[in-house]
Amino acid sequence: MSVPNPRPAELARSPILFLAFGFGAGLAPQGPGTWGSLIALPLAAFLLPTPAVFLLVTLLITLVGIPICGLAAKKLGVHDHGGIVWDEIAGQMIACIPLFFLPPSLNLVSGLGLAFVLFRLFDIAKPWPIRYIDKHVHGGVGIMLDDVLAGFAAAGLMVIFLRLIG
After folding, report:
1. Closest Cα partner for 100 from 89, 88, 115, 86?
2. Model-level pTM?
3. Residue 118, C-beta contacts closer than 8 angstroms, at least 6 positions apart
4. Is 37 within 8 Å of 116 (Cβ atoms)?
5. CA–CA gap between residue 21 and residue 72 (Å, rounded)
6. Separation between Cα atoms, residue 60 and residue 65, nearest integer Å
7. Separation in Å, CA 68 to CA 27, 103, 139, 143, 165
8. For the segment 102-160, what is each residue's pLDDT rounded down to a tens digit?
9. What per-residue string of b and e applies to 116-149 under the rule 16 or more CB within 10 Å gives b?
10. Cβ distance 72 to 87 under 8 Å?
């Protein structure tokens, strides 16, 4: 049995749910994880010119995501509710890290698009060890960790791709 999404008014009353649901993106009836990932792209584009700030913000999003996701899951009474997308925001930011080294032959929009597709691929397919983490690590750490790993896997492929075209 799936747990229904909270109503928008409930997100407005609960800062934890508002953040965990990616400012409302997690309420999307189809593909909330995809919409959560999309939330990160404008932020990544804005911060990419300042790598230190980008990395600091990404680290902050990831670390505060542990209690945000854990508290939201507890409030909803279900581990990793589909509408909790803060973890996708963190994972997508991680996937964008290699864009610091974007070659001139690839524009920023294309680079962001590639990072998005690769992150979603790893987040949805959940190859080992991502699937194992998703099934066996619980609480806020478990909710965040599988997406963080998917972000690093996507970033790894991004590095390979950028080296090949660079």
Report:
1. 115
2. 0.94
3. 95, 153, 154, 157, 158
4. yes
5. 9
6. 8
7. 16, 36, 10, 10, 38
8. 888 889 999 999 999 999 999 999 999 999 999 999 999 999 999 999 999 999 999 99
9. bebbbebbeebeeebeebbeeeebbebbbbbbbb
10. no
